[in-house]
């Protein structure tokens, strides 16, 4: 037990290494741009002020979104999805798989659960002892089930899911903006140092290296951001892009695709003025989502949704997220 605890402690420590690397690069870029370029190289006062003003706006937004991506905890399923003591005891004492499957099916009738495992069974997490809501997956690194899990990102040392997906997207946006602004404003001085028009000194190394690092990060971020833009437009998570969610009618990659505008609103909300600010505005509570098909009357589980809501619904106090009243539940036939 002591050895296992020590290994987990070491794992937690090492998991912060990518974050430390990113933070170190950003702090160095701040020093190189503010001091070596603006204060020590630029001679025009107006140019200095303009460069520093815009730079600090980009820098603050980058740091804010990065902070929110790292320190927004992944949201687990609320208590309604946990097995009661009686159900848990009945499930664990039962040795026949088909009976266990039926037990979970009976419990799920009280919940808005519409996706299935590949075998057709109710998705159940043995580690967390919860019936998984739609789009929820267990993260072995965070050791918890995460609502609308997209992926575990080592660069933020956190799970990207329902609670922080908007923050992660904004982090990519402001990271690219940060890199583009640095590259655009450094370029002319990069050329001057390169051809020898400016005196050699410490600033030369910082300016040259700053240009290469900004372009390198921008290219890598551009591909990652483009991929996530495609995911948002299709209303898919990274996990769903690789393995389509399974409904009662079978796998369907477009099961949650309700149109580009509504897909976008699910992540960023309906208040457009808040889209580019890292505050939580995503629709719903992460436990169930609108679906493409409207054949809900054919689904035997859907009839119990109103009963689930009356008995406690989304447990807003537990999930920490407000449910949007405009979100309706539909099911793939």
Automatic annotation (TrEMBL):
* Compositionally biased spans, kind Acidic residues: 306-318
**Compartmental location:** Membrane
Annotated spans, Disordered: 297-333
Q: Which sequence ranges are marked TM in the entry? A: 12-33, 49-67, 167-191, 203-227
Report membrane topology: Multi-pass membrane protein
Into which EC class is this enzyme placed?
transferase
Say yes or no: keyword Ribosomal protein present.
Answer: no
What EC number(s) does its UniProt record assign?
2.3.1.225
What the entry lists under Pfam families is as follows: DHHC (PF01529)
Q: Which GO terms describe its molecular function?
A: protein-cysteine S-palmitoyltransferase activity
**All residue ranges annotated as the Palmitoyltransferase DHHC domain in the record:** 122-242
| Annotated keywords | Acyltransferase, Membrane, Transferase, Transmembrane, Transmembrane helix
Q: Which reaction does it catalyse?
A: L-cysteinyl-[protein] + hexadecanoyl-CoA = S-hexadecanoyl-L-cysteinyl-[protein] + CoA
Gene Ontology terms: cellular component: membrane
Q: Give the source's domain of life in one word.
A: Eukaryota
Q: What is known of its domains?
A: The DHHC domain is required for palmitoyltransferase activity.
Question: Could you tell me which PANTHER family the record lists for this protein?
Answer: PALMITOYLTRANSFERASE ZDHHC16 (PTHR12246)
The family assignment reads: Belongs to the DHHC palmitoyltransferase family.
Could you identify this protein by its name? Palmitoyltransferase
Task: Give the classification, highest ranks.
Answer: Eukaryota, Metazoa, Chordata, Craniata, Vertebrata
């Amino acid at each position: 037990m002591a050895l296992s605890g020590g290994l987990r402690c070491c794992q937690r420590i090492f998991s912060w290494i990518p974050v430390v690397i990113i933070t170190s690069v950003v702090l160095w870029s701040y020093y190189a741009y503010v001091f070596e370029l603006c204060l020590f190289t630029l001679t025009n006062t107006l140019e200095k002020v303009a460069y520093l003003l815009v730079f600090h706006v980009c820098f603050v937004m980058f740091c804010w979104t990065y902070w929110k991506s790292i320190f927004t905890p992944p949201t687990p399923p609320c208590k309604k999805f946990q097995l009661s003591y009686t159900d848990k005891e009945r499930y664990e004492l039962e040795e026949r798989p088909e009976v266990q499957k039926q037990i979970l099916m009976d419990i799920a009738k009280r919940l808005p659960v519409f996706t299935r495992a590949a075998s057709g069974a109710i998705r159940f997490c043995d580690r967390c002892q919860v019936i998984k809501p739609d789009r929820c997956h267990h993260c072995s690194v965070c050791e918890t089930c995460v609502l609308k899990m997209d992926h575990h990102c080592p660069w933020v040392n956190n799970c990207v899911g329902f609670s922080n997906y908007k923050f992660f997207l904004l982090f990519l946006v402001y990271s690219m903006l940060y890199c583009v602004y640095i590259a655009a404003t450094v370029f002319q001085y990069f050329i001057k140092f390169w051809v020898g028009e400016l005196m050699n000194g410490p600033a030369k190394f910082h300016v040259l290296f700053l240009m290469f690092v900004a372009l390198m990060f921008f290219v890598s971020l551009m591909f990652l951001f483009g991929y996530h833009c495609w995911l948002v437009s299709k209303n898919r998570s990274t996990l769903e892009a690789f393995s389509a969610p399974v409904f009662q009618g079978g796998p369907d990659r477009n099961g949650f695709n309700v149109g580009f505008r509504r897909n976008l609103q699910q992540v960023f909300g309906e208040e457009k003025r808040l889209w580019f600010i890292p505050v939580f505005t995503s629709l719903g509570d992460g436990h169930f989502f609108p679906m493409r098909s409207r054949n809900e009357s054919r689904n035997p589980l859907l009839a119990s949704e109103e009963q689930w809501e009356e008995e406690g619904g989304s447990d807003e106090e537990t999930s920490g997220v407000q449910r949007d009243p405009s979100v309706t539940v539909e099911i793939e036939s």
